[in-house]
RNA sequence: UCCUGAGUAGCUCAGCCGGUUAGAGCAUCUGACUGUUAAUCAGAGGGUCGCUGGUUCGAGCCCAGCCUCAGGAGCCA
């Protein structure tokens, strides 16, 4: 059996005269002799030239867009313009036919909306090929970064019993019969008879379990699927998404911010050096797309310039209180251009405010810290002022919140007091509180939405286009 | 969930004030051409106008309800 060479390797080769075998999917077949073939190893196609005068007519007819073919031939310098090398085909074998009458992907521009409805085939387009190679590179860089720093990768449970984290609506997990569940004497569904002997849900965060592990390994991270049953219909929310959650003992909020910033710069830097061609294509795609927008709505920087800017510049760090001052004194606020005007300290920031800070005022990623306790979660460490907590959110242009994190409240009395105030049942989270009873220490962590990172890095604008098979309200096809 | 907009050929879209046989480009098919770059040229086929009901002599177009999608908001990562 002849060994297959990946197209990326062939395109980089100068071994003219040697024989190679490539296998891939036909992108176009031009002029009855030029096959543009792609195997996913690179965004670039290789051109295989068929001698149509000496090739069976019935074989030529089967070389159609989308067909899987194997080509064996001689690697030669290309006679035509547009590519350096090509393959002079000696033999072409159709591995899998593709009926052009019914194959949805045509050699033309398709709308992202159409491709979303054909998510099973969209990997075969340039755009989605590039997006998912970048996604892979980012995921790999995440593990490489933490591994180099000595973090332990924890797999926290996907099915959880706690319904107490307050991170959003949860999906129920049950084996009970939906139409006729067993009931107790009070007429309520009797979860004692369920698979786990209690009500369970899909996880909304691995943080609480992550904290337990950090109290032994020092530094850990999780990277896994997360589920939110919110009826969210936006370009930045999914019902099933992947989240990275580092948790570090002996880190205060500043250590936490430093880690998050270095981390983001590292993974983006990895893609800048390893996925150059994909980024160039995605950057070009973005330019084309923005041509339809009015001048003042277009990005100032190209995709690669934007990513280089992020890796080369410090993120802006401001407290919530300073941010409120900036917003309050902004022209937008004074001219009542905000839909929600900033009046008093304590209000939650709306998307328009975050966007103003990031895109108009600072024009770079911003880390907002020390939010009012009333708009943040129970586990965040209370500041000396008694009003604010050691929270930090990282906001980036075009996406908004990329990271949400905090220094955790390690003082048992303050934590339980806060839980009581917010109606979080302490008895259900006894195991979490045990970390505050047995060797508690200063610690911090954050959560980063992986798809939002992919969005930012690829310049795509809809989160459903950076995950293979998006799960959103009314959509679980594929 | 709320606001706004959209749904017409495989895809992208046009369709006038409600009027006779619903169009274009691309794709597909047939033929020609053969160093092309989303090849080109000629011809052909292709429609449940999102669904249901209503108004009307007559509805792709008007009205009501529903479904789906997109953008924005909320929830958040």
UniProtKB/TrEMBL annotation:
Q: Note the Gene3D superfamilies from the entry.
A: Bira Bifunctional Protein, Domain 2 (3.30.930.10), Nucleic acid-binding proteins (2.40.50.140)
EC number(s) per UniProt?
A: 6.1.1.22
Localisation per UniProt entry: Cytoplasm
Molecular function via GO: asparagine-tRNA ligase activity; ATP binding; nucleic acid binding
Q: Which InterPro entries match?
A: Aa-tRNA-synt_II, aa-tRNA-synth_II, aa-tRNA-synth_II/BPL/LPL, Asn-tRNA-ligase, Asp/Asn-tRNA-synth_IIb, NA-bd_OB-fold, NA-bd_OB_tRNA
- Please list the GO biological process terms of this entry: asparaginyl-tRNA aminoacylation
Give Gene Ontology CC terms.
cytoplasm
Give the record's keywords alphabetically.
Aminoacyl-tRNA synthetase, ATP-binding, Cytoplasm, Ligase, Nucleotide-binding, Protein biosynthesis
Name a Pfam family for this protein: tRNA_anti-codon
Indicate the segments forming the Aminoacyl-transfer RNA synthetases class-II family profile domain, all copies. 132-470
Catalysed reaction equations from the record? tRNA(Asn) + L-asparagine + ATP = L-asparaginyl-tRNA(Asn) + AMP + diphosphate + H(+)
TM ranges: none
Q: Which family is it part of?
A: Belongs to the class-II aminoacyl-tRNA synthetase family.
User: What's the protein here called?
Assistant: Asparagine--tRNA ligase
Q: Which organism is it from?
A: Solitalea agri
């Amino acid at each position: 059996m002849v060994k297959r060479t990946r197209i990326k390797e062939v395109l980089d080769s100068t071994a003219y005269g040697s024989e190679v075998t490539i296998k891939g999917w036909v992108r176009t077949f031009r002029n009855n002799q030029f096959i543009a073939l792609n195997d996913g190893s690179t965004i670039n196609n290789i051109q295989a030239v068929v001698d149509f005068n000496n090739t069976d007519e019935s074989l030529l007819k089967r070389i159609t867009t989308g067909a899987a073919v194997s080509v064996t031939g001689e690697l030669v310098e290309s006679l035509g313009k547009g590519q350096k090398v090509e393959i002079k085909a000696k033999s072409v074998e159709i591995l899998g036919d593709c009926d052009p009458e019914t194959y949805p992907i045509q050699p033309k521009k398709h709308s992202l909306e159409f491709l979303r409805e054909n998510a099973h085939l969209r990997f075969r387009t340039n755009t989605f090929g590039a997006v998912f190679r970048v996604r892979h590179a980012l995921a790999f860089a995440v593990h490489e970064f933490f591994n180099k720093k000595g973090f332990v990768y924890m797999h926290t449970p996907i099915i959880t019993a706690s319904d107490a984290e307050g991170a959003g609506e949860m999906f129920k997990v049950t084996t009970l019969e939906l139409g006729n569940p067993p009931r107790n004497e009070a007429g309520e569904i009797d979860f004692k008879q369920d698979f786990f002997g209690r009500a369970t849900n899909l996880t909304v965060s691995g943080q609480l379990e992550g904290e337990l592990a950090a109290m032994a390994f020092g530094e850990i991270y999780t990277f896994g699927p997360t589920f939110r049953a919110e009826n969210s219909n936006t370009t930045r929310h999914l019902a099933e998404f992947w989240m990275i959650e580092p948790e570090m003992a002996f880190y205060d909020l500043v250590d936490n911010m430093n880690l998050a910033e270095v981390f983001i710069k590292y993974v983006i830097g990895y893609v800048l050096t390893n996925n150059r061609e994909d980024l160039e294509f995605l950057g070009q795609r973005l330019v084309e797309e923005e041509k339809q927008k009015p001048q003042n709505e277009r990005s100032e920087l190209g995709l690669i310039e934007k990513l280089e800017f992020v890796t080369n510049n410090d993120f802006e760090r401001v407290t919530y209180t300073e941010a409120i001052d900036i917003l309050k004194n902004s022209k937008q606020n004074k001219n009542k251009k905000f839909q929600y005007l900033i009046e008093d300290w304590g209000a939650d920031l709306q998307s328009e405010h975050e966007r103003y800070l990031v895109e108009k005022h600072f024009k770079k990623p911003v880390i907002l810290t020390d939010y009012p306790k009333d708009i943040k979660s129970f586990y965040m460490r209370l500041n000396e002022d008694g009003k604010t907590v050691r929270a930090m959110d990282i906001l980036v242009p075009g996406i908004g919140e990329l990271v949400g994190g905090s220094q955790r409240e390690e003082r048992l009395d303050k934590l339980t007091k806060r839980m009581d105030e917010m109606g979080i049942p302490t008895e259900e989270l006894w195991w979490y509180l045990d970390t505050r009873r047995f060797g508690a220490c200063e610690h911090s962590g954050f959560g980063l939405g992986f798809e939002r990172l992919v969005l930012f890095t690829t310049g795509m604008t809809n989160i459903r286009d950076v995950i293979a098979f998006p799960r959103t309200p009314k959509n679980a096809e594929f």
